[in-house]
Specification:
262 residues, mainly beta, Neuraminidase, four-stranded antiparallel beta sheet, 22 strands, 43% strand, globular, Wnt receptor activity, EGF-like domain-containing protein, disulfide bond, LDLR_classB_rpt
Amino acid sequence: DKVIIGVAYDCMEKMVYWTDISGPSISRASLHGGEPMTIIRTDLGSPEGIALDHLGRNIFWTDSQLDRIEVARLDGRQRRILFDTGLVNPRAIVVDPVRGEAPKIETSYMDGTNRRILVKDDLGLPNGLTFDPYSSMLCWVDAGTKRLECMNPNQLGRRKIVEGIQYPFGVTSYGKNLYYTDWRRDAVVAVDRMISVENDNFQPHKRSRLYGITTAFAQCPGGHNYCTVNNGGCTHLCLATPEGRSCRCPDNTVGVDCIERN
C-alpha cells in the first residue's frame, strides 16, 4: 500500500510530483491523467516534503530518515545532496523560485548557501509550510502549538492566523485562503487569512489520514530567475540565488565538466 506524504505541482508542464514512504520513491504524473512514472527509487529512507522550482526545473525534497535535503532535475537525474548536517527529521520544504530561497524553520539559497534559521521560538511541531508567491508570505501549521502562522521572510514579526486547531499536517495557499489537512478531523480546512476565520471544510467520502496538499495554479506566477533561460548556461544543475546562480555537479561526478565517477 502506498503512503503518499508530500505533493508538488509543476505549473508549466501540468505535472504532479509526490513522495511515497512505503516504496520509498518519488513519482510524477500528468494532472490530466496518465500513467504515473517513478523518477527516484534508490538511496531513499523516508522522503516526505517535496518542492519544485518551475523556473529552474528542479525538485527539492527532505528525507526524515536519512536527515538530509536533496535536489535533482525534474526527471530524477543529476541528484545532489544540499544538506546532511544539523537536521533532525526534516519534513516540510517550499521554494521561492523568483528570489531563489528554499524556506526551528530554516531558509537558504537554492544552491545550499546562506543557510540560516528563520523561526526558532515558540514552535512545537511545525508540520507544513507554504509560500504564497503573490503576497510573499510564508505560512506554517504547527501540531504542537496548534496554530497557523504567517510571516514575510524578509521582515521581522509573525502573525497568528488561527489558534486552537487540532492536528494540522499539510498546508497550501490560494487567493486569500489557506487550506490545511487535519488528522483529527480527517478534513481539509479552509481559513480566510485576512480575517483569521475558518470558512469551509471538506471531508473525503473515504475517511483516512490526509497528508500533503498543494495548489495547482492555472497559470504560473510571474517572474524569472537566473536558471530560466538555457539552464543558466550550466551543463548540469542550475541552482538559482537572489543575485545569480550556481552551476553544480551531481553527487556521482567530478571536475568542471561533471564527469561520472567509474
